[in-house]
Specification:
Largest sheet: 10 strands, mixed
Helix content: 25-40%
Distance between the termini: 48 Å
CATH superfamily of the largest domain: LarA, N-terminal domain
Structural class: alpha/beta
Shape: globular
Number of strands: 12
Strand content: 15-25%
CATH class of the largest domain: Alpha Beta
Mean pLDDT: 84
Length: about 350
């Protein structure tokens, strides 16, 4: 059992905090008006009612402060036509454009999406993208690089690693793999209060790390419409505690629970999205491949998921968990609040086939 190392950044970087400076009277009146308008729409968030009106009102106010007075979030896009391209060079440039965290001396946990293996369906993060990220982290002076995943279904993880090509890649790179479903458990406080849970158990390896790199596949999902960096966090929740496919946590309300995860992690976080070949249609497992030729990197997980939604041809305001997270002030989804650098959305945008839930 490894000893837990100090957490280098207790505040984390997943949420946008409210400004500390006071608001002018004019700004306050404008906020009050906007909050009043938003209150009418807030009734759609019945999932948060048990938390009480005071919390509900606080989330709504924070969301409006972030929306109308907060700063912008940066998302960097890199063009990568195929997996035979120089992925490391693309990641290197895109990481720099994103103002991503300094990895020097850091213990880095890379969390890909290894939901399962379905022949012919690109439902998992390609190991060549993860390999490039491992090499980039080492270039940047990371003290240690680990790859970890807690698969959604109760499958032999070694079988999934071998079928997806991860076993060979990890052996070649001499990187440890940690099965987060069976890792030691650590209780993590949930700070948002969006669900009825006050704490949740997560894999100890998560909180032993200095930086968590969420590396999802860009794809559709029949429950959440899209599956990108925030849905990928489901893999840090241990199946040994919550079962498979972790549906007991879905009962908390998927938008509320995903927002809780994104808002509560106490370590630095960054998303590196594999959109070189995406998955459309009946995701997260049985959809069809769609070449998209993009890598996306950012530290605001809400903003990067919203940007990926647009790359897929969807309106992020119509994605329940993104609309909820923005309403609560956890991140940005409005185009004017997201600074897209590198390649443009217009150049890389595709129209993904909708998952069955959207039909």
């Amino acid at each position: 059992m490894r000893e837990q190392s100090p957490i280098s950044n207790p505040k984390g970087t997943f949420s946008l905090e409210s400004p500390k400076s006071g608001l002018s009277r004019r700004a306050f009146l404008r906020l009050a008006l906007l909050t009043g308008i938003a209150a009418g729409a807030g009734v759609v968030y019945k999932a948060t009612e048990p938390a009480g009106f005071d919390r509900w009102f606080r989330w709504m106010v924070r969301g409006n402060i972030s929306k109308y007075f907060g700063g912008t979030s940066r998302v960097a896009l890199g063009a990568c036509p195929s997996y035979d391209s120089d992925i490391l060079a693309v990641l290197r440039d895109t990481w720099k454009n994103a103002n991503a965290p300094n990895l020097y001396g850091a213990r880095v946990l890379i969390k890909p999406n290894l939901v399962d293996y379905v022949q012919g369906a690109p439902c998992f993060t390609d190991p060549r993208v993860v390999q490039a990220m491992i090499r980039l982290a080492r270039e940047a002076g990371a003290r240690q690089v680990i790859v970890g995943e807690g698969t959604t279904f109760r499958r032999d993880p070694q079988a999934v690693l071998e079928a997806t090509g991860f076993a060979e890649m990890l052996a070649r790179e001499q990187v440890e793999f940690v099965d987060l479903n069976y890792d030691d458990l650590v209780s993590m406080p949930l700070k948002g209060g969006y669900t009825q849970l006050k704490t949740i158990f997560v894999a100890k390896t998560i909180l032993d790390s200095d930086v968590l790199i969420s590396m999802p596949k860009m794809k559709t999902h029949h429950w959440t419409n899209i599956s990108v960096s925030i849905k990928n966090l489901f893999g840090i929740v241990p199946g040994i505690k919550y079962g498979w496919p972790k549906n007991t946590l879905h009962m908390q309300g998927i938008p509320a629970f995903l927002t809780e995860l994104a808002d509560s992690l106490p370590i630095r976080g960054v998303a590196v999205v594999d959109g070189i070949v995406g998955l459309q249609g009946d995701g997260p497992l049985f959809g069809n491949a769609i070449p998209s030729g993009v890598v996306a990197i950012g530290t605001d997980l809400v903003a990067i998921d919203a940007t990926c939604a647009r790359l897929m041809g969807f309106d992020p305001h119509q994605i329940d968990y993104l609309d909820f997270a923005a309403w609560a002030g956890v991140g940005s989804i409005d185009e004017k609040k997201i600074e897209v650098v590198g390649e443009s959305i217009a150049r890389l945008q595709r129209q993904y086939e909708k998952p069955p839930r959207l039909e």
